């Protein structure tokens, strides 16, 4: 190394040593304002600040002519309020997004600490949105584009059909506004839905890289624009079971077969998550055939010659869930694959898992939880849902300890209870020669 370069590197390290500051570690804080709005902060000293506002206003809360309003709300954040025009909001808020689960809307904004003054505008834009009729017309192409993208993704269409078949309304409502409803919603309908759902006790404000005082300050401002209380009562999810088949010309078929799983807060949630890892959740090593770690892949590969992909799915909501498998395979082999996977699930209910399989699944689950905790994007959504639904935050170390305490009997018992439940099925693709749900079971 040249002496001049070595000298510069030494000077740089000396400068870093002088400016290094020992910052105290801060745990996540959670409080409630007087009106019930939940406030969460996680000061991680990151130069990138993330603020999220989560509202219990997903499509499960739609009824009648409200179908699709949550989809509309995903695109109204950059429209006008009483105090700011849509152009002013769009110009000042760049890294802003809104995602939706079937239960929640999650608005988020990323920015540098130097631009934190924009976070107050973000809170105002979400909580005080008041679009004019002509502004709703402006977002119609966005809704149509979302539907077009969804129509080109068979896995998403299949999951939408699966929920519609499994539930009566509520969790069966689509994440997307039906094409015939695009342009039909009015500002009055949107305002009524917001009044029912954008209420203090149904909302949480979560800040990463921000002090708790800063998040509380933004939360108080948001409280000025939302109703107090809990809004309209939440209709319980009703699992009914059923099947849906969508025929297309594609020879690659996507299919899912599930039974009713457990809720987020069930005592069986961890045992079922361990069972999911034991059955297999897709590839974790690039180009791997996944046969060593997945019981489902092992079963499918025994009857199929062409490439396929299969994963155990475990979807949890606040009062229900879905558990089963999702498989993508060629139409000519799909019927054999489905029968092999159903038989594999049945074998687990009869002979159960071994201690070695349960232990290996526990390690996979703990690894997944730890890696999720490392990602600020993944952990932000998880913290948002926890704050909005139960008002408390789970500790990673306590969760990992709880995983270790789950016994083999816990896992095998929940397998029998869940897998033997009433099934639901959805499939999309060229379905000729593929058995119906009743024939598979």
Beta-strand content bin? 15-25%
Element pattern in H and E: HEEEHHEEHHHHHEHEEHHEEHHHHHEH
Give me the side-by-side strand order of the main sheet: 1-2-6-3-5-4
**Number of helical regions:** 17
Structural class: alpha+beta
Q: Please describe the biggest sheet, giving its number of strands, its sense, and whether it closes into a barrel.
A: 6 strands, mixed
Task: Let me know the number of strands.
Answer: 11
- The N- to C-terminal Cα distance equals 71 Å
- How much helix is in the residues? 40-55%
* Model regions low in confidence, pLDDT < 50 over at least 5 residues: none
Mean pLDDT: 87
Q: Using only CA atoms, what is the Rg?
A: 24 Å
Spatial shape: globular
Descriptive report:
The chain has 441 residues and is α+β, with helices and mostly antiparallel strands. It has helices at residues 3-19, 69-73, 86-92, 117-127, 133-138, 140-151, 154-166, 187-197, 212-223, 269-279, 295-301, 331-351, 355-374, 376-389, 396-405, 408-419, 437-440; strands at residues 29-32, 38-42, 48-55, 96-100, 105-112, 203-208, 243-247, 252-260, 309-316, 321-330, 423-429. The strands form two sheets. It has a six-stranded mixed sheet with strand order 1-2-6-3-5-4, with helices on both faces. A five-stranded mixed sheet has the order 7-11-8-10-9, sandwiched between helices. Strand 4 and strand 5 (105-112) form a beta hairpin. Helix 12 (331-351) packs across helix 16. The N and C termini lie far apart (71 Å). 41% of the residues are buried.
């Amino acid at each position: 190394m040249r002496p001049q370069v070595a000298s510069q590197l030494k000077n740089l390290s000396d400068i870093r040593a002088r400016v290094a500051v020992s910052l105290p570690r801060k745990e996540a804080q959670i409080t409630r304002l007087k009106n019930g709005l939940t406030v969460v902060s996680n000061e991680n000293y990151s130069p990138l600040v993330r603020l999220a506002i989560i509202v219990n206003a997903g499509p499960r809360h739609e009824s009648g002519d409200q179908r699709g309003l949550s989809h509309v709300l995903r695109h109204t954040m950059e429209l006008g309020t009483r105090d700011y025009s849509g152009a002013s909001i769009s110009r000042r808020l760049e890294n802003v997004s809104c995602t939706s689960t079937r239960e929640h809307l999650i608005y988020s904004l990323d920015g540098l600490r130097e631009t934190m003054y924009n976070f107050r505008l973000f809170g105002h834009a979400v909580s005080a949105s008041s679009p004019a009729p002509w502004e709703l017309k402006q977002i119609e192409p966005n809704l149509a584009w979302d539907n077009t993208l969804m129509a080109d993704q068979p896995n998403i269409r299949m999951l939408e059909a699966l929920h519609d078949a499994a539930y009566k309304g509520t969790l069966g409502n689509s994440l997307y506004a039906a094409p015939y409803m695009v342009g039909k919603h009015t500002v009055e309908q949107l305002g009524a839905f917001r009044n029912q759902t954008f209420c203090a006790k149904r909302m949480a404000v979560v800040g990463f890289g921000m002090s708790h005082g800063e998040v509380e300050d933004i939360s108080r401002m948001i409280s000025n624009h939302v109703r107090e209380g809990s809004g309209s009562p939440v209709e319980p999810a009703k699992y009914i079971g059923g099947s849906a088949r969508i025929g297309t010309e594609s020879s690659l078929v996507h299919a899912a077969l599930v039974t009713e799983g457990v809720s987020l807060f069930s005592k069986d949630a961890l045992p079922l998550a361990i069972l999911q890892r034991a059955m297999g959740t897709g590839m974790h090593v690039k180009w791997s055939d996944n046969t060593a770690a997945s019981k489902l892949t092992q079963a499918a590969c025994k009857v199929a010659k062409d490439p396929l992909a299969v994963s155990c799915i475990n979807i949890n909501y606040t009062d229900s869930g879905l558990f089963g498998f999702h498989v993508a395979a060629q139409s000519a082999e799909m019927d054999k694959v489905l029968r092999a996977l159903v038989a594999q699930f049945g074998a687990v209910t009869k002979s159960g898992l071994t201690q070695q399989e349960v232990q290996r699944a526990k390690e996979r689950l703990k690894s997944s939880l730890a890696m999720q905790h490392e990602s600020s994007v993944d952990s932000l959504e998880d913290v948002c849902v926890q704050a909005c639904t139960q008002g408390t935050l789970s500790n990673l170390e306590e969760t990992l300890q709880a995983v270790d305490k789950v016994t083999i009997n816990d896992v095998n018992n929940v397998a029998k209870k869940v897998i033997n439940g009433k099934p639901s099925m959805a499939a999309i693709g060229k379905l000729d020669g593929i058995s119906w749900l009743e024939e598979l079971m």
